[in-house]
Amino acid sequence: MELVAGCYEQVLFGFAVHPESEACGDHEQQWTLVADFTHHAHTASLSAVAVNSRFVVTGSKDETIHIYDMKKKIEHGALVHHSGTITCLKFYGNRHLISGAEDGLICIWDAKKWECLKSIKAHKGQVTFLSIHPSGKLALSVGTDKTLRTWNLVEGRSAFIKNIKQNAHIVEWSPSGEQYVVIIQNKIDIYQLDTASISGTIINQKRISSVKFLSESVLAVAGDEEVIRFFHCDSLVCLCEFKAHENRVKDMFSFEIPEQHVIVTASSDGFIKMWKLEQDKKVPPSLLCEVNTKARLTCLGVWLDKVPDTRESFPPAAEPSPVSKEQSKIGKKEPGDTVHKDEKQSKPNTKKRSLASESKKATKESGLVSTKKRKMVEMLEKKRKKKKIKIMQ
């Protein structure tokens, strides 16, 4: 198990987690975090991180996505399709990665060959966040065009557009996929899938930076403050709150291992902390361990190398009904909503962004283009264009 965290200082940190099996004198289990690696590949601050059973991918304001092989502990290469800050990265199983960015594009990547399978002009403004349904058939995205969009991942197209009249910056499915939350500043709107309407609203004291479902009915909420709160999605009441950090909490990650439910938090104060969740969510969690990175953290992930992931890839397009049960539920029309129109799709330029063409020049081990080599190729292309213009004149 390993914690990975990105920061404003352009560095990716890796910390190995060592759970202690023997109980301490106070009968509280204590864990330890050991620095494993730091990697400085990006030329701007890190903005997103995602993890599957083999790789860690990071997105940055430098418009690139970097891939790290956690088994070999080496950089695997870079993806350079987007033109704008990478705002969100999500793996589905071990076969697919979805990325969103300020250029308004959502890209679906083959996480084996690292080729761009589909590039969709998803929002008229920036893509601020996306979330994949547990079934792998649907995804939700929000952007600066004040819309919530539903995507049919089986066919790789837009399914439904909802005008939410404000710019949302987070969207998240519940573990069962029966409900989802849309975050606008400090407001949480809870939507039910069967009615496609808001069933309740939670107001946090400060702007929200991260939410995580701890169960189908309990939502952890962190924001521009030191406190983390647990809310009940049905009663909408705050079950508990606790001071987690000395500065605002930037990101959270939760996972379950045998006899343990853990939440990890990262803050602008530089600390990464691991907390043991109690069965009764009205009881604040207990601190397992912490580490000070001495950096301004921005994003967080947990690499669980021993946990098998049964979700290998998206459902095949050959499955029955192009509009799935979930999609038809979420696509109920309400005033102000617009029915799907085929979105413009930008065809991947394999010369620029996929690995297929550039891997011929790159080494077989990496399979991807290094940042230095990519910049050299771009400079050569510019020189060739200038020569052509002079010849024409």
How would you describe this structure to a colleague?
The structure is a single chain. The protein has helices at residues 325-330, 355-358, 371-392, and strands at residues 2-7, 12-19, 31-39, 46-51, 55-60, 65-69, 74-79, 86-92, 96-101, 105-110, 115-121, 127-132, 138-143, 147-152, 157-163, 170-173, 179-184, 187-192, 197-203, 208-213, 218-223, 227-232, 238-243, 249-257, 260-267, 271-276, 286-292, 297-303, 338-339. The chain has 393 residues and is mainly β. It has a five-stranded antiparallel sheet with strand order 12-13-14-15-29. Strands 3-2-1-28 form a four-stranded antiparallel sheet, with no helix packed on it. It has a four-stranded antiparallel sheet with strand order 4-5-6-7, with no helix packed on it. β4 and β5 (55-60) form a beta hairpin.
Topology:
Elements: E1 2-7, E2 12-19, E3 31-39, E4 46-51, E5 55-60, E6 65-69, E7 74-79, E8 86-92, E9 96-101, E10 105-110, E11 115-121, E12 127-132, E13 138-143, E14 147-152, E15 157-163, E16 170-173, E17 179-184, E18 187-192, E19 197-203, E20 208-213, E21 218-223, E22 227-232, E23 238-243, E24 249-257, E25 260-267, E26 271-276, E27 286-292, E28 297-303, H1 325-330, E29 338-339, H2 355-358, H3 371-392
